[in-house]
Design goal:
heterodimer, A: alpha+beta, Chalcone isomerase, 5 helices, 6 strands, 25% helix, B: alpha+beta, two-stranded antiparallel sheet, 3 helices
């Protein structure tokens, strides 16, 4: 009988050890929590010739900067919503140095919207993706012969149907004119992103 | 007889240890692979304002401007919605929001002053609604057990509709939040119909 007692004690000890192990595990889980994304570096956006493409992982890997809404010409609400994303770490870097580090990628999604009365009010929400604007920060003038690079950035627009081939041919004609009012802030409407403040 | 008893006890003990080791390994793996940020509560059971939501996965930003709603909309004005990335990874694989999922809706005013009756204004790019001041937040947390008595698998919290956001928030009653999500949100009380990434 004595041996049985010893054996029972062994079982109990095992359970006790298990309990302690689980407790330490829970503690571990708390302290080991990571606030950033589990995956590593995001997908490259530029090839050797300076051609840009829309990375497939940006929605999961990038940080959200802000949304702009274009008012409807007829009817109420917004006809387009523009959601803007930046490579991971951009918000923290901009807050620290007040500019975008080389290699920063900005992606603006352009959506057609649907506007309708709902429980929480008359709401416009993103409906159909029209395409993307992509900008890549480049102080080194990496592609002087490429018509889509200059003024410190690489520039391109992509139709929703083709995220790998741009329809832009010359950034000075296709892109820059709309950015002129933001020239003083490196061509980006940074005042529209309170996330960067 | 005694030998058999000893053998049985030894097997039981070994099983116990094996279970412990297994549980520990699986647990450790889960914790490190998902890297989730899980909800934190105060000792009074209030939800602590989640940390670092602006580095989470953004899912969409519907807009209910003051100008179109007599300033009476429930959630003014931009609704910037994020999901905690570790939970999103699990959702992507399983199609279900796991317990511990946090959805964070940060509210943001449109840029003032308004210039048109619909609340819009003109900027160099044209007439529209531009992002302005932050304006508090609403947060949901999934935990089927914790919230079971509320009639929902999710807990609903408000961290003010103004800045600064409250450091912690009380659970809201079902009649205030959950009923609307249960009636109209497409999947598990989440408005996946408005968030392409979650569809």
């Amino acid at each position: 009988m004595k041996i049985v007692h010893v054996a029972c004690f062994a079982v109990l000890a095992g359970v006790a050890v298990g309990g302690v192990a689980l407790l330490s595990l829970a503690a571990d889980g708390q302290t080991g929590l990571r606030m950033s994304r589990p995956d590593g570096t995001p997908e490259a956006v530029v090839d050797a010739q300076g051609n840009l493409h829309v990375p497939s992982d940006y929605r999961e890997a990038y940080e959200f900067l802000g949304t702009w809404a274009v008012a409807a010409d007829k009817g109420v609400g917004s006809r387009e919503l523009h959601d803007v994303y930046a490579t991971p770490g951009t918000i923290a870097a901009y807050r620290k140095r007040s500019n975008f580090p080389d290699g920063t990628v900005l992606i603006k999604e352009v959506y057609e919207t649907l506007t309708a009365p709902m429980t929480t009010g008359t709401v416009s929400h993103a409906q159909t993706l029209k395409g993307w604007f992509v900008m890549v920060k480049d102080r080194k003038n990496s592609h002087p012969d490429n018509m889509l690079w200059g003024d410190g950035w690489g520039w391109s627009w992509f139709d929703a149907g083709n995220p790998v081939k741009t329809t832009s041919t010359n950034y000075k004609k296709d892109c820059l004119p709309c950015h002129v009012p933001a020239r003083a802030t490196d061509w980006v409407y940074t005042s529209g992103y309170p996330t960067l403040k | 007889m005694m030998k058999k008893l000893i053998l049985a006890a030894a097997i039981l003990a070994l099983c116990g240890i094996a279970t412990v080791v297994l549980a520990q390994r699986q647990g450790t793996h889960t914790a490190s692979a998902s890297g989730r940020y899980l909800p934190e509560y105060t000792k009074d059971g209030e939800l602590v304002l989640p940390k670092n939501w602006r580095s989470w996965v953004f899912v969409g930003s519907p807009l209910t401007p003051d100008g179109l709603n007599d300033s009476k909309e429930g959630f003014p004005e931009y609704h910037n919605v994020y999901i905690e990335p570790g939970s999103y990874e699990i959702y992507k694989k399983t199609g279900e929001f796991p317990d511990g999922t946090i959805m964070f809706k940060e509210l943001q005013r449109v840029l003032k002053p308004e210039q048109f009756p619909d609340g819009s204004r003109s900027e160099p790019s044209g007439r529209g609604y531009f992002p302005g001041e932050f304006n508090g937040a609403d947060v949901t947390v999934k935990d089927a057990k914790r919230y079971a008595q509320t009639g929902s698998k999710w807990g609903y919290y408000n961290f003010n509709h103004r800045e600064p956001k409250a450091p912690a928030a009380k659970l809201r009653p079902k009649s205030e939040c959950a009923f609307c999500h249960q009636a109209s949100a497409k999947k598990d009380e989440v408005w996946t119909q408005f968030y392409r990434l979650l569809e």
